[in-house]
Write a structure and sequence with these properties.
The complex is a heterodimer of chains A (223) and B (448). With 223 residues, chain A is mainly alpha-helical. Chain A has eight helices and two strands; from the N terminus they run ααββαααααα. Chain A has a two-stranded antiparallel sheet with strand order 1-2. In chain A, helix 4 packs antiparallel against helix 7, helix 6 runs antiparallel to helix 7 and helix 7 packs parallel to helix 8. With 448 residues, chain B is of the alpha/beta class. Chain B has 15 helices and ten strands. In chain B, the strands form two sheets. An eight-stranded mixed sheet of chain B has the order 3-2-1-4-7-6-8-5, with helices on both faces. A two-stranded antiparallel sheet of chain B has the order 9-10. The chains are: A mainly alpha (223), B alpha/beta (448). Chains A and B meet through helix 4, helix 5, helix 7 and helix 8 of A and helix 1, helix 11, helix 12 and helix 14 of B.
């Protein structure tokens, strides 16, 4: 079943990516983020080229003061989180390292170039693989583990749909942030909202599915 | 730049291989437990004469919990003529010694041992207590544990098999609702025991003797050289020495004992740093002997190495993250074989990371733990937090001169349980402790 689903995702990959990108553009349009034309990119060989909108970035290096203020504000927010939430401290420290590395690159490596299309390409490469592998993960987490195979299958399909929809929303958010703040937050966004976020979504659905299964099992025992 | 990309790819490849192997192990355990729900804990006890038992309770500044554990042990339904409780006060600066003395006066089966000199630490305290114990079987409880009435019988039963050298029971936090961290640790412990330990026992791998809620044959302990007072994780050290000498370690899932899980990250961080350091110390001390161990099967050898090296995966994981970030933001790295580079990376992120959560989910299903399982996505925070703490501990271990440095001391976990200490101070006697512990219908104590 997982094999069939993966094959279906690969077969309809180009259409899926187009639909995904259309959702992202719609969100960008609704939030008044400007676009500067379209470009065609290749995600993976065999998936066919897909069209993505180019989002102009604010030039970081033209306004080092603004970049510096953004950097300081973000670092302050992370330091506050570090002090306020002890359990998330190490995660926040990792984010601080990413932010500092990114700040150094923005301010001191003028040759480094990155634009919204490149970011979208990296994003789509990661997400397509998630969509391809997700049926196998779902098979393990939902179909093989849950007492009811049918409900496990339904949960798996639901997660797949949700992951695709959320990916479009997250990409739009990242492109919006890129437009307004430049590449400063790029590694941070990719790390937090990329594959890690997919993991959170899967875990969220997995915990819900388990909770429902346990509820039914316990009800069955009582009756 | 080419060299950096190559180094990152090698680093990422190594991370993926190591973590995939660990993930496969977790998947096997979880699916095994889910598909075979009945644990193999039924054993033939006809003709088994209950042995004499010495219960060792090492304590260091445990006034908040000392009375609970002693009262619960006294209330156990084991024949008193075959039972002695050795409560060790190891240089406590609070009222622990006084509480122990009062219990010893009241109950003849309790013997108070006061230590005021020699090396500190649990291992050293256990060495002293073991030397004075007269039982055939030594059972161990940490001071914050509250054993149920049948606990001693549950733990003794596997010793009817003459090949069993040590037995481990199940640890269950009773304060899962006290904080988010305690709730997450309840899930983690549940996975570790209900799935990990039980699967390793059933599959004849290496279930671990955890140094509390467990027991060891006194004669076997002497034969393998006793407790290693220099080890931070004397339980892991003993487990592997026992297995290398051909003894079995049994796990009894039904022997549930309640403990206080750390409620704040500072306490948890100290605990996990101690475990990481001690475990890695054992890895360096024992891995050669373990590989050569003539009583071990190939599967036991492999699983044992996984257990000993488990904390080394944290720094490997961090290196993998950094390498993947560099590769992702280096356009040159994408030019060739991008699919081949990206697929294993994403695969390991999804499958590798999900493995431990599958274990947690399986344990929740087996335990019907409906309340806590909704916290599962937040386990990622605990995962990041633990990874950082382990990296810090291992950095200190390898570069901070901790390795084999000086005498060890008590690495005590902070206790949160209030009440008995204050009740005791107000002059109540030991009987009053029963008001604070409620015995549930299954005979287990639950603090209220």
């Amino acid at each position: 079943m997982a094999c069939v689903l993966s094959a279906a995702v690969f077969h309809s990959g180009t259409r899926l990516l187009d639909a995904h990108n259309r959702i992202s553009w719609f969100i960008l349009k609704c939030t008044s983020v400007p676009t500067a034309g379209e470009r065609t990119i290749e995600v993976f060989p065999g998936l066919g080229p897909v069209t993505v909108k180019d989002v102009p970035l604010k030039a970081d290096r033209e306004s080092p003061l603004r970049t510096g203020i953004l950097f300081a504000a973000a670092l302050s927010a992370l330091i506050f989180s570090h002090r306020r939430f002890p359990l998330g401290r190490n995660f926040v420290v990792f984010l601080m390292i990413l932010l500092c590395a990114s700040g150094i690159v923005v301010l001191f490596v003028p040759s480094f170039y990155f634009d919204a299309v490149m970011y979208a390409q990296i994003w789509l490469r990661g997400e397509v693989l998630v969509w391809l592998l997700l049926p196998w993960v779902s098979a393990l987490l939902f179909v093989l583990t849950l007492p009811s195979m049918a409900s496990g299958f339904l949960w798996g399909v639901l997660v797949e749909c949700y992951v695709v929809a959320w990916s479009a929303l997250r990409l739009a958010f990242c492109l919006g942030v890129l437009h307004y703040t430049g590449i400063l937050f790029l590694p941070l966004l990719w790390f937090v909202l990329g594959i890690l976020f997919d993991l959170v979504i899967i875990l969220f659905f997995y915990s819900l599915a388990l909770e429902q299964s346990i509820k039914r099992t316990m009800g069955g025992r009582r009756s | 730049m080419t060299f950096l990309i190559l180094a990152c790819k090698l680093c990422l490849g190594f991370t993926i291989i190591v973590l995939t192997v660990y993930a496969v192990r977790h998947y096997i355990f979880a699916l095994y437990r889910i598909s075979l729900r009945k644990s193999q804990d039924m054993m033939e006890l006809v003709g088994f004469t209950t042995p004499s038992v010495s219960v060792l309770v090492p304590m260091h500044n445990e006034e908040k919990v000392a009375a609970h554990v002693l009262q619960a042990l006294v209330d156990c339904d084991y024949d008193w003529s075959r039972l002695e409780i050795l409560a060790v006060d190891d240089r406590s600066e609070d009222r622990t010694g006084e509480i122990i003395d009062q219990f010893a006066l009241k109950y003849p089966i309790i013997r108070a041992i006061h230590r005021s000199r020699g090396n500190g630490g649990k291992g050293a305290a256990l060495r002293v207590a073991s030397a004075q114990a007269s039982g055939e079987i030594l059972l161990l409880f940490d001071a914050d544990y509250v054993p149920g009435r049948s606990m001693i019988k549950f733990l003794i039963a596997p010793f009817c098999d003459p090949e069993v050298g040590a037995v481990m029971g199940r640890v269950v936090p009773d304060n899962g609702g006290a904080s988010l961290l305690a709730g997450l640790l309840e899930l983690e412990r549940s996975a570790g025991y209900q799935v990990g330990q039980q699967a390793r026992f059933n599959l004849n791998l290496t279930p671990q003797f955890g140094g509390t809620v467990g027991g060891v044959r006194a004669s076997v302990l002497r034969a393998v050289g006793g407790w290693n007072a220099d080890s931070l994780t004397e339980d892991t050290d003993l487990t592997f020495r026992l297995l290398m000498q051909g003894w079995k370690v049994a796990y009894v899932n039904r022997a549930e004992c309640y403990e206080e899980a750390p409620e704040t990250w500072e306490v948890r961080s100290r605990q996990i740093r101690r475990w990481a350091t001690g475990h890695t110390e054992c890895f360096h001390d024992l891995w050669k002997g373990w590989i050569k161990g003539r009583f071990l099967s190939a599967a036991e050898r492999i699983d044992g190495l996984f257990v000993l090296a488990c904390y080394l995966t944290a720094p490997i994981l961090v290196l993998g993250w950094l390498a993947s970030l560099i590769l992702f933001f280096t356009p040159q790295a994408h030019r060739t074989t991008v699919f081949l580079v990206a697929l294993p990376f994403v695969g390991y992120q999804l499958f590798g990371n999900q493995a431990t959560f599958l274990e947690v989910g399986s344990a929740a299903l087996l335990d019907c733990n409906r309340r806590r399982i909704l916290l599962l996505p937040l386990s990622l925070l605990n995962f990041f937090a633990s990874t950082g703490a382990i990296c810090q501990a291992l950095f200190n271990f390898y570069f901070g001169g901790i390795f084999r440095s000086g005498p060890h001391h008590w690495h005590k976990t902070l206790r949160y349980r209030e009440a008995y200490g204050s009740a005791y101070r107000s002059g109540d006697n030991a009987e009053s402790s029963s008001k604070l512990l409620v015995r549930s219908p299954n005979g287990l104590y639950v603090s209220r």
